[in-house]
Amino acid sequence: MTSPAAPRPGHDRTTPLHWRTVDIVVSAVIGVAVGLVFWLWSALWSATTGLFAFFPPAQAVLYGMWLVPGVLGGLVIRKPGAALLTSLAAASLEMLLGTGWGVSVLVSGALQGLLSELTFLAFRYRHWGMGVAVLAGVAGGISPAIRDNLTSHITWPLSHQVTYGVIVLISAGVIAGAGSRLLTTRLAAAGALAPFPSARG
Amino acid sequence: MNSAPLTETAPPPGRSRPGGVRSWLLGVNPAAKLITAVVLSLGLIPAVDPVTGGVVLAVTAAVVPFSGIGRSTLLVLSVPFLLMGVSTGVVNLLYGQEGAWGAFGAAVRLLAIALPGLLAAASSDPTDLADALVQRLRVPERPAMGVLAALRLAPLLADQWRTVTLARRARGLEAGRNPLAALSIFLGKLFALLVRAIRTGTLLATAMDARAFGTGPRSHARVSRWRTADTLLVVAGPLLLGAAYAVSAHLGTLRLLFG
Amino acid sequence: MRTANHDGAGARVELSGWGWRHAGRAEYALRGVDLVIEPGERVLLLGSSGAGKSTLLHALAGLTGPDGALTGEEEGRLLVDGQPANRRRGAVGLVAQDPESQLVMARAGDDVAFGLENLGVPRERIWARVDEALARVGFPHGRHHPTAALSGGEKQRLVIAGVLAMRPRLLLLDEPTANLDPAGARLVRGVLARLLADTGATLVLVEHRVADVVDLVDRVVVVEPGGGVVADGAPRTVFADHGRTLAERGVWVPGVDPAPRTGRAPGGPALVEAVRCALRAPAPLGRRRRAATVLRDVDVTVEAGSATALTGANGAGKSTLLTALAGLAKPAAGQVLPRGPLADADPRPLVRWPARRLARHVGTVFQHAEDQFVTATVRDELRFAPLRAGADEAEAAARADELLDRMRLAHLADKHPYTLSGGEKRRLSVATALSSGPRHAPDVLVLDEPTFGQDTRTWVELVELLDGLRAQGRAIVLATHDPLLLHHLADVELRVADGAVTEVLRTGTENTR
């Protein structure tokens, strides 16, 4: 007598609203891992060139990388709240490693994650293709696009601010959106996503 | 992960705190610090003049000697902090439309927005912060514990990243001067790290499951205490904001974001 | 003694016709398992690699339900104390092999309290139980000690404390000493021995290094991949009756050690020399201070046609020295220089060599095979190095095919490297290190814990392969804890301890210095 311990592959395992421990922990670990890598990378970059500090267009073009955790988390775990959780985890790591913003990064992480989350929600958590991913990336980018202009670039003329914002959005769509989607495909091909519905790609 | 860089002097609960008043901030409930920091940060955004920001910055900076944050931590954190300020100043000078004084003001305002958050983080232990969020602010417990557990893996992930980098060199993969090659190698490393990270996370989740995580309501081994001082701090935030706005308005320097 | 029988009577385990198949796999990990374990018994679970032992332990711990990470299909019946296995009551404790991925909290006491919090134990009683558990495992530090600052053995002890605090009636240990150095392993085995003396809990243990634990158990159960129980009884009986067959199937049976065919080391000129090196462990994350210098005044010579083994506790600097000798990391002081034929290729210190040239002459095999895979199919992995070295498509394909055959990977040529089994990944990682050099192998081969987690068959294969390479005149450098490997292969043993490297053993080679 065979009793499946879980539904056959091809169905979503368990209802989408039921979060297993592995969903929570891997969400958080993805956030921490990606956050760590980009933190190390940008620390290295800042140390060797002043590019990020003094040339905002450079910062804007690469801004998308900070938005990867949210989109990637959503695409991999595919449950409501995954994008938010992953984004918060990445922000927590940043806070732990030491940034000039301290706990405020948790707020920006929450906002970015929430915006990506809303995109996935708009597609009823059923569509996870390239288009949705890019939109989720762009949505997440709205937060820094506006926030940076209100905090760091406060004296800029509107045209500069808009340009900055647009570059951030494009970067978010490409790096965080398309990049995360491609990464998910490769991870699925390597069999790394076995416990998750995204294992099918 | 040891929260060494941020809380070298954070005393473990139950032990006597070093130097009473001089480390007052360490004993404040992290949730109170978080709330106050967020209120101050967000509250400063509508005011774009340097005076409002300056008042908040001055008061917050005055708290630093009483925050109990270790000297070396302060030194280390001051680097990104001041760099942010300088960067803001330069960026507004070069691309802004209000000249040097406007750029300076923008820098002061930015530092004022950032400092409360920085102090809150530097004077709080991550576990204590998580406890405070769960017990005081009703943040869902499982995700909070999940994030704590993932943070504990951070040194291991850093090690794995190092190994993956060495392995790339061992396979003959090095970027040299080619940025495209560098990007491709970087992405390959990120991929390898993610695979390992997911696997490690799955193992950790299994261990947590085996210890009955998520099987019922949790009790709390550590209590996140809320004292009068915490309420006072939370109240002090909006008061300080109000005072800063009032001072600026009184001096005629107040400028708001819209209008 | 206050701790006696705090765990209560042991649990009774009953499996009948039990089988499990992982999601996405065609074969069953185990099938038709019939097993009864009485309360308080100590059972050693044995079987060759892939025999589903870990799966069985996870099922006993109640982790195979729909809300667990393990998904698949179950058949038959599995009962713990007359009820299906259920992780809710905390009656079953599981200790796995890697302490790093089992510790949840940043402070020791908090981690032990974690399980108690999950069970809803009232706060007034938690800390007393935490202290009791820490005392039972002999944890040498206080409750507030950061978990990141513990050695491997201490971490594993803390994990055990966390499990004990929950007062389990069934204790499951899945290779608890596999990731530890010999000192750490001894520590943990000591804890287990003391523990078993005063607890009534039932124990099921999976362990490769059977000889070390055979005194702790009173029953041995052997399972086979895709099947059920094939042997069951007292250790002596099982090993006497089935010892040979088990050893052939890959199980490490005490008294039946594998006997690889190895020859004498031919010796040769020096190829790599570390001169007056000081080595520093990489700075741990978050600590801004530079890590302390771990090794000083290191002078090591690696000769062609010989096998040099680095031994020592984890954290003593073995890996740091190994990566320095492989030219992957820069020593804090001093240099690692090429000698002899290697110096003809490039006289600079190895760490300054361009990666391509380094890969041609020095191959490195990492402990976790996946760390060094860079492509998406097995065949591409083996074509990668020749193509980068400038070979054309045809030649690269030919070299890849040759290696595929030699390493018995031909049937996996189009699979993604990450989807291979543990043993296959190991073979592939060794193959990739071999693929880069001219004449099909680099001059120096550096391996980090190559026999980690191997069964007897793959172990023999690997040792004979390394011996063959040595006979061809290549230099082998290994970091290892494995005494059998040292015995069969090492010509020079360098012990890394207390900041220095001392030569412990040198068997006769052609060139004695």
UniProtKB/TrEMBL annotation, chain A:
The chain crosses the membrane at residues 21-40, 60-77, 84-107, 127-146, 158-178. Keywords: Membrane, Transmembrane, Transmembrane helix. Coiled coil: none annotated. The keyword Transmembrane helix applies. It holds the Pfam family ABC_cobalt. This is ECF transporter S component. It comes from Thermobifida alba (Thermomonospora alba).
